[in-house]
Design brief:
There is one protein chain. By secondary structure, the protein is of the alpha/beta class. It has an 8-stranded mixed β-sheet, sandwiched between helices. It is globular. The protein starts with a strand and ends in a 6-residue tail after the last helix. The relative contact order is 0.13.
Protein backbone atom coordinates (compact mmCIF):
# COMPACT_ATOMS: atom_id res chain seq x y z
CA UNK A 1 0.00 0.00 0.00
CA UNK A 2 2.85 2.38 0.91
CA UNK A 3 4.46 1.87 -2.51
CA UNK A 4 1.33 3.30 -4.12
CA UNK A 5 1.69 6.58 -2.20
CA UNK A 6 3.67 9.14 -4.19
CA UNK A 7 3.19 12.13 -1.88
CA UNK A 8 2.67 12.03 1.88
CA UNK A 9 2.34 15.24 3.87
CA UNK A 10 2.42 15.10 7.67
CA UNK A 11 1.50 17.98 9.98
CA UNK A 12 2.51 20.65 7.44
CA UNK A 13 2.87 24.10 8.95
CA UNK A 14 3.58 27.43 7.26
CA UNK A 15 3.69 30.43 9.59
CA UNK A 16 4.65 33.92 8.45
CA UNK A 17 6.14 36.48 10.81
CA UNK A 18 4.68 39.90 10.08
CA UNK A 19 5.95 43.40 10.82
CA UNK A 20 5.71 44.79 14.34
CA UNK A 21 2.29 46.26 15.07
CA UNK A 22 3.88 48.21 17.94
CA UNK A 23 7.43 49.46 18.27
CA UNK A 24 8.29 47.26 21.24
CA UNK A 25 5.64 44.58 20.78
CA UNK A 26 6.20 41.04 19.49
CA UNK A 27 5.89 40.33 15.79
CA UNK A 28 2.47 38.83 15.03
CA UNK A 29 2.29 35.41 13.33
CA UNK A 30 0.04 34.57 10.41
CA UNK A 31 -0.90 30.88 10.54
CA UNK A 32 -1.36 30.21 6.81
CA UNK A 33 -1.18 26.41 7.17
CA UNK A 34 -1.27 24.83 10.60
CA UNK A 35 -1.09 21.04 10.71
CA UNK A 36 -2.34 19.80 7.33
CA UNK A 37 -1.85 16.08 6.57
CA UNK A 38 -2.78 14.16 3.41
CA UNK A 39 -1.60 11.50 0.95
CA UNK A 40 -1.86 11.15 -2.83
CA UNK A 41 -1.51 7.80 -4.60
CA UNK A 42 0.31 7.47 -7.90
CA UNK A 43 -1.79 8.43 -10.90
CA UNK A 44 -4.55 9.90 -8.71
CA UNK A 45 -5.86 13.40 -8.02
CA UNK A 46 -6.48 14.99 -4.63
CA UNK A 47 -8.71 18.05 -4.78
CA UNK A 48 -7.97 20.68 -2.12
CA UNK A 49 -10.91 23.05 -1.66
CA UNK A 50 -11.96 25.90 0.60
CA UNK A 51 -12.67 29.61 0.70
CA UNK A 52 -10.10 32.20 -0.35
CA UNK A 53 -7.41 32.66 2.28
CA UNK A 54 -7.79 29.21 3.86
CA UNK A 55 -4.23 28.11 2.95
CA UNK A 56 -4.81 26.02 -0.19
CA UNK A 57 -2.23 27.70 -2.43
CA UNK A 58 0.29 28.04 0.40
CA UNK A 59 0.01 24.28 0.99
CA UNK A 60 0.77 23.58 -2.67
CA UNK A 61 3.73 25.95 -2.70
CA UNK A 62 5.08 24.49 0.54
CA UNK A 63 4.92 20.93 -0.82
CA UNK A 64 7.21 22.04 -3.66
CA UNK A 65 9.33 24.15 -1.28
CA UNK A 66 8.56 27.28 -3.27
CA UNK A 67 7.57 28.50 0.19
CA UNK A 68 9.64 27.08 3.03
CA UNK A 69 7.48 25.22 5.59
CA UNK A 70 7.77 26.12 9.25
CA UNK A 71 7.35 22.49 10.28
CA UNK A 72 6.07 19.08 9.32
CA UNK A 73 7.20 16.44 6.83
CA UNK A 74 6.78 16.16 3.06
CA UNK A 75 7.69 12.75 1.63
CA UNK A 76 7.89 12.44 -2.14
CA UNK A 77 8.35 8.85 -3.30
CA UNK A 78 9.71 8.08 0.18
CA UNK A 79 12.19 10.99 0.20
CA UNK A 80 11.85 13.77 2.78
CA UNK A 81 11.90 16.91 0.63
CA UNK A 82 12.40 19.21 3.60
CA UNK A 83 15.72 17.52 4.44
CA UNK A 84 17.24 17.92 0.95
CA UNK A 85 20.09 20.29 0.18
CA UNK A 86 19.57 22.85 -2.58
CA UNK A 87 21.48 20.93 -5.28
CA UNK A 88 19.68 17.65 -4.62
CA UNK A 89 16.33 19.46 -4.48
CA UNK A 90 17.09 21.05 -7.86
CA UNK A 91 17.41 17.58 -9.38
CA UNK A 92 14.20 16.42 -7.68
CA UNK A 93 12.31 19.37 -9.17
CA UNK A 94 12.33 17.57 -12.52
CA UNK A 95 9.72 15.26 -11.06
CA UNK A 96 7.56 18.01 -9.50
CA UNK A 97 6.01 20.92 -11.36
CA UNK A 98 3.26 23.51 -10.96
CA UNK A 99 0.58 25.09 -13.14
CA UNK A 100 -0.22 28.56 -11.86
CA UNK A 101 -3.64 30.15 -11.60
CA UNK A 102 -3.27 33.11 -13.95
CA UNK A 103 -2.05 32.27 -17.47
CA UNK A 104 -1.67 35.98 -18.15
CA UNK A 105 0.82 36.85 -15.41
CA UNK A 106 2.65 33.49 -15.22
CA UNK A 107 4.12 33.84 -18.74
CA UNK A 108 7.01 36.11 -19.67
CA UNK A 109 5.55 38.57 -22.16
CA UNK A 110 8.99 39.11 -23.75
CA UNK A 111 9.56 35.46 -24.55
CA UNK A 112 8.08 33.44 -27.38
CA UNK A 113 5.81 30.54 -26.51
CA UNK A 114 8.47 28.10 -27.69
CA UNK A 115 11.10 29.75 -25.51
CA UNK A 116 8.82 29.57 -22.47
CA UNK A 117 8.23 25.85 -22.91
CA UNK A 118 11.93 25.23 -23.61
CA UNK A 119 13.08 27.08 -20.45
CA UNK A 120 12.95 24.03 -18.11
CA UNK A 121 15.04 22.01 -20.58
CA UNK A 122 17.58 24.85 -20.81
CA UNK A 123 17.77 25.31 -17.03
CA UNK A 124 18.25 21.58 -16.40
CA UNK A 125 20.61 21.32 -19.41
CA UNK A 126 18.74 18.41 -20.96
CA UNK A 127 19.56 17.29 -24.50
CA UNK A 128 21.11 19.14 -27.43
CA UNK A 129 19.55 22.25 -28.98
CA UNK A 130 17.87 20.23 -31.75
CA UNK A 131 16.56 17.70 -29.22
CA UNK A 132 15.10 20.49 -27.13
CA UNK A 133 13.36 22.00 -30.14
CA UNK A 134 11.94 18.60 -31.04
CA UNK A 135 10.71 18.16 -27.47
CA UNK A 136 9.00 21.58 -27.58
CA UNK A 137 7.21 20.65 -30.81
CA UNK A 138 6.12 17.38 -29.21
CA UNK A 139 4.75 19.22 -26.18
CA UNK A 140 2.84 21.70 -28.32
CA UNK A 141 1.16 18.83 -30.11
CA UNK A 142 0.45 17.10 -26.78
CA UNK A 143 -1.49 20.08 -25.37
CA UNK A 144 -3.33 20.91 -28.59
CA UNK A 145 -1.20 23.74 -30.01
CA UNK A 146 0.34 24.00 -33.47
CA UNK A 147 4.15 23.82 -33.88
CA UNK A 148 4.12 27.03 -35.94
CA UNK A 149 2.77 28.86 -32.86
CA UNK A 150 6.14 28.48 -31.11
CA UNK A 151 7.29 31.81 -32.58
CA UNK A 152 4.30 33.76 -31.22
CA UNK A 153 4.31 35.83 -28.03
CA UNK A 154 1.85 35.31 -25.12
CA UNK A 155 -0.30 38.33 -26.04
CA UNK A 156 -1.08 36.65 -29.37
CA UNK A 157 -2.85 33.74 -27.65
CA UNK A 158 -6.26 33.44 -26.02
CA UNK A 159 -6.59 32.67 -22.31
CA UNK A 160 -7.16 28.98 -22.90
CA UNK A 161 -4.19 28.76 -25.26
CA UNK A 162 -1.98 30.49 -22.69
CA UNK A 163 -2.94 27.93 -20.09
CA UNK A 164 -2.04 25.20 -22.59
CA UNK A 165 1.40 26.81 -22.85
CA UNK A 166 1.67 26.68 -19.04
CA UNK A 167 0.70 23.01 -19.08
CA UNK A 168 3.26 22.27 -21.80
CA UNK A 169 5.95 24.00 -19.73
CA UNK A 170 5.00 21.92 -16.68
CA UNK A 171 5.28 18.72 -18.75
CA UNK A 172 8.65 19.56 -20.30
CA UNK A 173 10.72 17.52 -17.81
CA UNK A 174 8.39 14.50 -17.71
CA UNK A 175 7.24 15.08 -14.11
CA UNK A 176 5.46 12.55 -11.94
CA UNK A 177 3.59 15.11 -9.84
CA UNK A 178 1.97 18.45 -10.70
CA UNK A 179 0.39 21.02 -8.41
CA UNK A 180 -2.54 22.57 -10.28
CA UNK A 181 -3.18 25.89 -8.53
CA UNK A 182 -6.68 26.90 -9.65
CA UNK A 183 -5.69 26.38 -13.30
CA UNK A 184 -9.14 27.15 -14.74
CA UNK A 185 -10.48 29.89 -12.44
CA UNK A 186 -9.37 32.70 -14.80
CA UNK A 187 -11.00 31.10 -17.86
CA UNK A 188 -14.48 31.13 -19.39
CA UNK A 189 -16.72 28.19 -18.49
CA UNK A 190 -16.49 26.58 -21.95
CA UNK A 191 -12.69 26.87 -21.92
CA UNK A 192 -12.58 25.49 -18.37
CA UNK A 193 -14.12 22.25 -19.59
CA UNK A 194 -11.54 21.95 -22.38
CA UNK A 195 -8.60 22.44 -19.98
CA UNK A 196 -10.05 20.01 -17.42
CA UNK A 197 -10.54 17.38 -20.11
CA UNK A 198 -6.97 17.96 -21.29
CA UNK A 199 -5.62 17.48 -17.76
CA UNK A 200 -7.60 14.24 -17.39
CA UNK A 201 -6.35 13.00 -20.77
CA UNK A 202 -2.74 13.79 -19.90
CA UNK A 203 -3.10 12.05 -16.54
CA UNK A 204 -4.32 8.87 -18.23
CA UNK A 205 -1.60 8.93 -20.91
CA UNK A 206 1.35 9.95 -18.70
CA UNK A 207 0.27 8.49 -15.33
CA UNK A 208 0.46 11.90 -13.69
CA UNK A 209 -0.40 12.63 -10.06
CA UNK A 210 -2.20 15.89 -9.30
CA UNK A 211 -2.78 18.10 -6.28
CA UNK A 212 -5.68 20.11 -7.68
CA UNK A 213 -6.37 23.33 -5.78
CA UNK A 214 -9.68 25.10 -6.31
CA UNK A 215 -12.51 26.96 -4.60
CA UNK A 216 -15.03 25.55 -7.10
CA UNK A 217 -16.52 22.28 -5.89
CA UNK A 218 -18.11 21.56 -9.27
CA UNK A 219 -14.67 21.69 -10.92
CA UNK A 220 -13.11 19.55 -8.19
CA UNK A 221 -15.89 16.99 -8.52
CA UNK A 222 -15.10 16.61 -12.22
CA UNK A 223 -11.39 15.89 -11.88
CA UNK A 224 -10.65 14.58 -8.37
CA UNK A 225 -10.50 11.06 -6.97
CA UNK A 226 -10.33 12.26 -3.37
CA UNK A 227 -11.18 15.63 -1.86
CA UNK A 228 -9.80 17.44 1.19
CA UNK A 229 -11.70 20.44 2.55
CA UNK A 230 -9.55 23.12 4.17
CA UNK A 231 -10.63 25.81 6.62
CA UNK A 232 -8.32 28.39 8.21
CA UNK A 233 -5.13 26.40 7.61
CA UNK A 234 -6.51 23.00 8.67
CA UNK A 235 -8.10 20.11 6.79
CA UNK A 236 -11.54 19.56 8.29
CA UNK A 237 -12.79 16.72 6.08
CA UNK A 238 -11.16 14.25 3.68
CA UNK A 239 -12.64 11.34 1.75
CA UNK A 240 -13.24 10.08 -1.77
CA UNK A 241 -15.22 12.22 -4.21
CA UNK A 242 -18.42 10.17 -4.22
CA UNK A 243 -18.60 9.92 -0.44
CA UNK A 244 -18.01 13.65 0.07
CA UNK A 245 -20.85 14.68 -2.22
CA UNK A 246 -23.16 11.89 -1.06
CA UNK A 247 -22.57 12.13 2.68
CA UNK A 248 -20.66 15.25 3.81
CA UNK A 249 -20.11 15.14 7.56
CA UNK A 250 -18.48 18.43 8.55
CA UNK A 251 -20.84 21.43 8.91
CA UNK A 252 -18.47 23.57 6.81
CA UNK A 253 -18.47 21.02 3.97
CA UNK A 254 -22.26 20.88 4.08
CA UNK A 255 -22.41 24.66 3.75
CA UNK A 256 -20.06 24.63 0.76
CA UNK A 257 -22.01 21.88 -1.00
CA UNK A 258 -25.34 23.62 -0.41
CA UNK A 259 -24.09 26.44 -2.66
CA UNK A 260 -23.33 24.12 -5.61
CA UNK A 261 -26.14 24.20 -8.23
CA UNK A 262 -27.73 20.81 -8.82
CA UNK A 263 -27.53 19.39 -12.35
CA UNK A 264 -30.77 17.49 -11.77
CA UNK A 265 -33.58 20.02 -12.22
CA UNK A 266 -36.19 17.49 -11.07
CA UNK A 267 -34.45 17.02 -7.73
CA UNK A 268 -35.61 19.28 -4.95
CA UNK A 269 -32.75 21.51 -3.91
CA UNK A 270 -31.87 21.30 -0.24
CA UNK A 271 -32.01 24.42 1.89
CA UNK A 272 -29.10 26.74 1.29
CA UNK A 273 -26.86 26.98 4.35
CA UNK A 274 -25.63 30.55 4.80
CA UNK A 275 -22.65 30.90 7.10
CA UNK A 276 -22.59 33.96 9.30
CA UNK A 277 -19.65 36.32 9.08
CA UNK A 278 -16.30 35.92 7.34
CA UNK A 279 -13.36 33.60 7.90
CA UNK A 280 -11.66 34.68 11.14
CA UNK A 281 -8.33 36.45 11.03
CA UNK A 282 -5.54 33.83 10.60
CA UNK A 283 -3.37 36.01 12.86
CA UNK A 284 -5.82 35.88 15.76
CA UNK A 285 -7.68 32.60 15.32
CA UNK A 286 -10.56 31.49 17.57
CA UNK A 287 -9.61 29.07 20.32
CA UNK A 288 -10.87 25.51 20.17
CA UNK A 289 -12.50 24.58 16.87
CA UNK A 290 -11.65 27.41 14.47
CA UNK A 291 -15.04 27.00 12.81
CA UNK A 292 -17.14 27.43 15.95
CA UNK A 293 -17.70 31.17 15.35
CA UNK A 294 -19.68 30.32 12.18
CA UNK A 295 -21.09 26.90 13.09
CA UNK A 296 -24.78 26.71 14.06
CA UNK A 297 -24.14 23.44 15.91
CA UNK A 298 -21.26 24.66 18.12
CA UNK A 299 -21.38 23.65 21.79
CA UNK A 300 -19.45 24.95 24.77
CA UNK A 301 -16.59 22.44 24.38
CA UNK A 302 -16.16 23.44 20.71
CA UNK A 303 -14.91 26.81 21.92
CA UNK A 304 -12.26 25.22 24.15
CA UNK A 305 -10.88 22.06 22.53
CA UNK A 306 -9.60 21.85 18.96
CA UNK A 307 -10.88 18.70 17.19
CA UNK A 308 -8.43 16.29 15.57
CA UNK A 309 -8.84 14.83 12.09
CA UNK A 310 -10.06 11.30 12.81
CA UNK A 311 -11.61 8.51 10.74
CA UNK A 312 -15.32 8.72 11.60
CA UNK A 313 -16.32 6.25 8.86
CA UNK A 314 -14.14 3.92 6.75
CA UNK A 315 -11.98 6.16 4.58
CA UNK A 316 -13.85 9.26 5.76
CA UNK A 317 -11.84 11.63 7.96
CA UNK A 318 -13.46 14.53 9.83
CA UNK A 319 -12.27 17.13 12.33
CA UNK A 320 -15.41 17.68 14.39
CA UNK A 321 -16.44 17.04 18.00
CA UNK A 322 -19.77 15.50 16.92
CA UNK A 323 -20.02 11.73 16.88
CA UNK A 324 -20.82 9.93 13.61
CA UNK A 325 -24.45 9.37 14.59
CA UNK A 326 -24.85 13.09 15.30
CA UNK A 327 -23.13 14.03 12.04
CA UNK A 328 -25.39 11.75 10.01
CA UNK A 329 -28.48 13.47 11.43
CA UNK A 330 -27.26 17.04 11.20
CA UNK A 331 -29.56 17.67 8.23
CA UNK A 332 -32.47 17.55 10.69
CA UNK A 333 -31.22 20.83 12.12
CA UNK A 334 -30.34 22.61 8.86
Amino acid sequence: MTDRILLRVEDLRVHFKLKHSHLFGPRPTLYAVDGASFEISRGRTLGLVGESGCGKTTSGLAVLRLVEPTGGKVYFDGIDLLALEAEVLRTMRRRMQIIFQDPYSSLNSRQTAGGIVRDPLDIQNIGSRSEREARVSELFHLVGLMPNQKALFPHQFSGGQRQRICIARALALNPDFIVCDEPVSALDVAIQAQILNLLCKLQDELNLTYLFISHDLAVVQHISDEIAVMYLGNIVEKTDRRQLFKNPLHPYTRALLSAVPSRDSSKKKSTRIRLKGDIPNPINRPKGCHFHTRCMHAKAHCKIKEPKLVEKLPGHWVACHFETSDLNHMEDYL
